[in-house]
Amino acid sequence: MSLQVAVIGGGIGGLSAALNLLKAGLDVHVYEQAPRIAEIGAGIQISPNASRLLHRLGLKPAMDQFGVRPLAVHQRRWQDGRTLQRAPLGPEVETLFGAPYYHFHRADLANLLADAVPRERLHVGHKLVGLEQRGDRVTAKFDNGTSAEADLVVGADGIHSRVRTVIFGPEKPRYTGCMVWRGMVPAERIAHLDIEVASHNWMGPGGHCVHYWVSAKRLMNVVCCVEHGNWTAESWTDRGNVADVLERYKDWHPIIRGLIEAFPETYVWALHDRAELPSWTAGRVTLLGDACHPMLPMMAQGAAQAIEDGAALAALLKAMPDDVPSALARYEALRKPRATRLQDVSTANRTRFHLPDGPEQQQRDQAMATSGDRSLANIGWLYQHDAAAVS
Ligand SMILES: Cc1cc2nc3c(=O)[nH]c(=O)nc-3n(C[C@H](O)[C@H](O)[C@H](O)COP(=O)(O)OP(=O)(O)OC[C@H]3O[C@@H](n4cnc5c(N)ncnc54)[C@H](O)[C@@H]3O)c2cc1C
Questions:
Q1: Residue among 208, 219, 268, 220 nearest 241 (CA)
Q2: pLDDT band at 39 (very low <50, low <70, confident <90, very high)
Q3: Whose alpha carbon is nearest atom 25 of ligand 1?
């Protein structure tokens, strides 16, 4: 009989893990608290280290249909728009790393993952409230009064993970001091800005702004991130005021102001993170994605790392189906150092992106001008990595 796995959480991490585990021949069920699989109106960048793994799940046609392939990553100065770095992300990157870089609307990505999971294996309206481990079996209990038994429970339930709390005790995520406004702008509102199909990142004192096309270039995803925001609530659905964003970015380049002026609405949230966990696993329960390694978005790698986690876990369970504890130990040994490195690089980028104008910023700009390629030597450690190669 194949190993029974209960995945808690139907986000990008949980759904892609489930697909990998199913492909590995395991008996997998996903339990999601929400009444349906739904992602918020925001964008997500998926780099080759993750898109390669999703292609292997047979998702390339759907990804090509919904994803936008940026030609370059363009780093610019906040006020005069001067280019700090421009590196290819298009065919050059695909040729070098064997998989494309994509930009998605989150809902498109979540839906295409959910559509690939057999209906009878996806249980919405199931909020995990408790876990009980007895011998080699785990019982997951849900708020609707039902329960499920499995040989392994995978907590893919995000930064506020209930699974993590159950196995390691309560610990609040930390407010990082950064707040974010996001807007999704219809293409027709910004046609006059003539914005290239690229990943754009504008850096300025105490803040940065990222924007890129999603949904077959019908929408521009815009994320404005600032230090010392007065907003600490971590909700994807709290409304902000467009006037506040404009006020904060009033001295920035006309393209940034033009984008913000075109916001149909804006949502605001505070960025949180967590300290590194000593371990991800307790008995037959383990974690993946934001549940164990939430990171700031300044490397655009949180979801990519969650996707990598699922691919690695599935490959290991396939290789050692009769020795789950060893597979889990190896999973953590392989995945934790890489995820921790990306947490650290993301945190360092926050400082780099937000430097006040002055000598440090000038040093950063000089360094960027000479290190901006997407060569194997430069970015191979990130994009070439194959998380499913576990032997
Ligand atoms: C501004 C911003 C921009 C970002 N940009 C990028 C990017 O470009 N590229 C990238 O790779 N990453 C990016 N990230 C990070 C990325 O969004 C996250 O790392 C990723 O969504 C984590 O996926 P996950 O599946 O682990 O968790 P989540 O997406 O949080 O999913 C968790 C799921 O579990 C469910 N759940 C929660 N509790 C329970 C429960 N008790 N029972 C059952 N279900 C439960 C939730 O409803 C949810 O569906 C960004 C993050 C931010 C904040």
A1: 268
A2: confident
A3: 13
Q: Which is catalytic among the residues 101, 212, 249, 267? A: 212
Residue 11 scores a pLDDT above 70: yes
Compute the distance between CA of residue 286 and CA of residue 292 in angstroms, rounded to an integer: 9
For residue 158, pLDDT over 80 is answered with: yes
Dist. CA 208 → ligand 1 center (Å): 21
In a 13 Å sphere around the CA of 106, the CA atoms on its Cβ side amount to: 17
Q: What is the distance between the alpha carbons of residues 149 and 251, in angstroms, rounded to a whole number?
A: 57
Amino acid of residue 63 = M
Backbone region of residue 229 per phi and psi (left: phi > 0; alpha: psi in -120 to 50; beta: other values): beta
Please say if 101 is a catalytic residue: no
- Take residue 391 and report the two structure tokens written for it: 């032997």
DSSP 2: P
Please tell me the residue having the least CA distance from ligand 1 atom 6: 300
- How many alpha carbons fall within 13 Å on the CB side of residue 191? 3
Residues 6+ apart with CB under 8 A from 321: 2, 3, 26
Nearest alpha-carbon partner for 90 in 195, 187, 193, 197: 197
Please give the mean pLDDT across all residues of the chain: 94
The position carrying tokens 């006309």 is 254
Coil vs helix vs strand at 298: helix
Query: Pocket of ligand 1, candidates 16, 33, 223: which has the most ligand atoms within 8 Å of its Cβ, to mutate?
Result: 33
SS3 345: helix
Quick one: which of 169, 144, 165 has its CA closest to 31?
144
Please report, for residues 44, 101, 246, 338, 363, the alpha-carbon distance to residue 104 in angstroms, rounded to integers and kept in the order given.
5, 10, 25, 24, 33
Classify residue 364 as exposed, middle or buried by CB count within 10 Å of its CB (0-12, 13-18, 19+).
Answer: middle
* Per-residue pLDDT reduced to its tens digit, 51-70: 999 999 999 999 999 999 99
Burial of 237 (0-12, 13-18, 19+ CB in 10 A): exposed
Tell whether the torsion through CA atoms of 377, 382, 383 and 385 is positive or negative. positive
CA 79 / ligand 1 centre spacing (Å): 32
pLDDT tens-digit readout, 309-336: 999 999 999 999 999 999 999 999 999 9
